Amino acid sequence: MFSGNFPEPFIVFRSIGVRGGERFGVGAMDKSGMTGDYIDRAHPAYVVVVLFRGSGRYIDGAGNEYPLGPGSCFQRFRNCRHSTLIDPASGWYECFLELGESAARLLENCGVADPVRPVVRTAPAPGLMERFRSLGECFNSAPDSELVRRLPEILELAQLCLIGNPGGGRRDRIGRMLEQACALLGGDFRREIDLDDFCRRHGWGYENFRKVFREELGISPYRYRIRRRLDAACALLAEPGCSIRDIAEQLGYSSPYEFSAQFKRYLGCAPSAYRPGH
Fold first, then answer.
1. Tens digit of each residue's pLDDT (9 = 90 or more) over 28-78
2. Around 62, how many Cα atoms within 13 Å sit in the side-chain half-sphere?
3. Residues 38, 32, 228, 2, Cα dihedral to 10°
4. What residue spans define the domains of the chain?
5. By C-alpha distance, which of 9, 13, 41 is closest to 28?
6. pTM value > 0.85
7. What Rg do the C-alpha atoms of the chain give, in angstroms?
8. Which helix (H) or strand (E) holds 155?
9. What is the pLDDT of residues 189-232, one digit of tens each?
10. Residue 128 neighbours by CB under 8 Å, 6+ apart
11. What is 223-274's CATH number, 3.80.10.10, 3.30.2350.10, 1.10.10.60, 3.20.20.70?
């Protein structure tokens, strides 16, 4: 769904307005390898989060679960308990926008932000990631006077995250298909994946699917599965109790030698050399 280079992770918070003002924040976070960042917690402010890469689940205070994937936009409503669970092998990368109380109330009063719908799936607006990066640079260096002038832009960015790109129906269908494909390719590595069958069930021709996948993610489905498999291997290598043989078996390799050869070919070192302390 999102191609190109992700910006380096950053987090910037600033107060906007006189006498301390209201706190606004913007950031990009790489949470690869994490399993959860919010477990039954309530955030003190309203936050909009867009998932650019990765997969997981959002669980609201009533126990309702929502799947998360590339293109998902979820919200942390002020003082509302919720959980976000992350697939540690999915390479989770998000951008977030925290709004002051007045701006958050405006979005809610206009029906853009709705606590009943904490997770939305939209057709992402073009250049969304670049807008986050640009706003982060402004927050980091601009004087207060310029930051105040950027308030309409901040609200527009929140709206683009929640409503998306008008008329993006086809983009939305592509996004849903890619989300399902990524979940399949990044799932159980011990089972064979039949992409021809996947495409038939979703009304796609394989060659068209492969072309769209590469255009949107910048990588072929085959390479994507290898990358997710090696991400899972890196996470397991960080656990001292896992042997190379155990990891190879868990990830569906025919032998530790096949695992070591692929790991070295793509990551440039042997699995044993990747372990902490080496």
1. 999 988 887 888 899 999 999 999 988 999 999 888 889 998 889 999 999
2. 6
3. 90
4. 10-163, 169-221, 223-274
5. 9
6. no
7. 20
8. helix 151-163
9. 888 888 988 887 777 788 888 888 888 888 899 998 998 899 88
10. 50, 95, 160, 161
11. 1.10.10.60
CATH number, domain 169-221:
1.10.10
Query: Collapsing DSSP states into helix, strand and coil, what is residue 272?
Result: helix
d(CA 155, CA 167): 20
User: Same topology for domains 169-221 and 223-274, yes or no?
Assistant: yes
Contact 12, 125 (CB under 8 A): no
Given the DSSP bridges, would you call strands 72-76 and 56-60 parallel, antiparallel or unpaired? Answer: unpaired
Residue 106, burial from CB neighbour count under 10 angstroms (0-12, 13-18, 19+)? middle
Q: Which secondary structure element, helix H or strand E, spans residue 162, and what is its range?
A: helix 151-163
CA 103 to CA 109: how far, in whole Å? 10
Strand partners of residue 23? 15
Instruction: Give the H or E element holding residue 129.
Output: helix 128-141
CATH number of 10-163, picked from 2.60.120.280, 2.40.37.10, 3.40.630.30, 3.40.50.1970: 2.60.120.280
Length of the chain counted residue by residue: 278
